[in-house]
Amino acid sequence: MAEKCQIIKTNVFASCETYNCLKRISWAIGRPDGPPQLHHYYCDDCMRDILASVPEELRPEPLYPEWHDGPMFHEPTPETEPIPEPTKSYPCKYCGEEFDSPTKIGSHTRYCEARKEAVANGET
Ligand SMILES: [Zn+2]
Ligand SMILES: [Zn+2]
To answer: What pLDDT is recorded for position 121?
Structure first.
């Protein structure tokens, strides 16, 4: 069975075919069973540039879904996070400071300056 044209990793010592690029090749494009002189050779940098510039109509959809920005290729939107229960707060009824447990407000009230004042003024 004939091989398909593809990108082949190569370590042949030759320079990149890109105009003005003299880097050593890392990749060949062609059929692995075809004559090597008919392959196209690119360095790693140029190969990455080529892949980054693949026009939309050439992009293999199932392989690279992240290349598509259309809504149908997006990950399903995750369920909206459940809103966390608001932490119960126990505000001091004298000074307004809030505490997260009845124990804390209990011990606070004993020393609350605002309460002492209120008591001194006969407000309780
Ligand atoms: Zn190159
Ligand atoms: Zn208080």
So the answer is: 87
Q: How far is the CA of 49 from the centre of ligand 1 (A)?
A: 9
- pLDDT one-digit tens code per residue, 32-56: 999 989 999 999 999 999 999 999 8
Residues with CB in 5 Å of ion ligand 1: 16, 18, 21, 23, 43, 46
Q: Per the structure block, which two tokens stand in for 64?
A: 């690279």
Q: How far apart are CA 75 and CA 104, in angstroms?
A: 46
- Condensed to tens digits (0 to 9), the pLDDT of residues 55-69 reads 988 887 665 555 555
Q: Are 47 and 10 in contact (CB under 8 A)?
A: no
| Cα dist from 47 to 4, 31, 81, 90, 92, whole Å | 18, 16, 42, 64, 68
